[in-house]
Amino acid sequence: MTDTTDLRNRHIRSFVLRQGHLSPAQQRAVDTLLPRYGIPYENKPLNLDQAFGRSAPKILEIGFGMGDSTATIAQAHPENDYLCLEVHTPGVGNLLKLIDAQQISNIRIIQHDAVEVLRDMIADGTLDGVHIFFPDPWHKARHNKRRLIQSPFIAKLVQKIKPGGYIHAATDWQDYAEQILRVFSEEPLLENTAADYAPRPEYRPLTKFEQRGLRLGHGVWDLVFLRHSPD
């Protein structure tokens, strides 16, 4: 098996492309709106200001699910631009529907593997922030190697963040939260904004799934780290 420490080679994917149910409305959104709000994956650096048509803080979101939180955040923060990555078509279609219905202009979507997008399209020192909300926990021990947040990936990701920029992860799996805390804490260019886990920042809305879990007594862990300059 290929070593996951080298992102130039084939890597263990952190997702499985499930078919999922694609509604007619989601399919229409993909057909009609993705050409406008989507950016095709290419093996060449992406000019982020050109992609959004302006110079503004750029936030990368990795894995936006059905896009409800993404739309809420982008609409509440028109001063930022959000480059959003997701591989599953129903989620892409749903976010495109929200963009259209709510007339959101500061979101662009790349439907492709985040590891390859980072490697090939995002230049170093160009991101003001990164959101990774509720990544697949791959909770069976034998599948833990598929988790997105591992040291080699974070070492590459941090290079894309400007000094002073942030990375914000959230999970409802305590075991994954502990792994994320360890991985982030061991990265020399990252500094925790809290003693360990952070309070949920106001900009991250509670999802319906999260609200249900909290009512049942389930935990949710937010981790917010800043990227500092190398010594």
Task: Walk me through this protein's architecture.
The structure is a single chain. This protein has a seven-stranded mixed beta sheet, sandwiched between helices. With 231 residues, the chain is α/β, with parallel strands linked by helices. It has eight helices and seven strands. The termini are far apart. Helix 1 (24-37) crosses helix 4 and helix 3 packs parallel to helix 4.
Beginning-to-end CA distance, first to last residue: 36 Å
- Provide the helix percentage: 25-40%
The topology string of helices and strands comes to: HHEHEHEHEHEHEHE
Biggest sheet character: 7 strands, mixed
Query: What is the rounded Rg?
Result: 17 Å
Mean pLDDT metric = 90
State the helix count.
8
DSSP, total strands: 7
Structural class: alpha/beta
Low-confidence runs: 1-10
Taking strands numbered 1, 2, ... along the chain, how are they ordered across the largest sheet? 3-2-1-4-5-7-6
Percentage beta strand: 15-25%
Shape: globular
Can you give keywords for this protein?
alpha/beta; seven-stranded mixed beta sheet; disordered N terminus
What is shown here, in short?
The protein has 231 residues and is an alpha/beta fold. The protein has helices spanning 24-37, 48-52, 68-76, 89-102, 114-121, 151-160, 174-186, 208-215; strands at 58-62, 81-85, 107-110, 127-133, 161-171, 190-192, 221-227. Helix content is 35%, strand content 18%.
SSE topology sketch:
Blueprint: H1 24-37, H2 48-52, E1 58-62, H3 68-76, E2 81-85, H4 89-102, E3 107-110, H5 114-121, E4 127-133, H6 151-160, E5 161-171, H7 174-186, E6 190-192, H8 208-215, E7 221-227
Helix pairs in contact: 1-4, 3-4
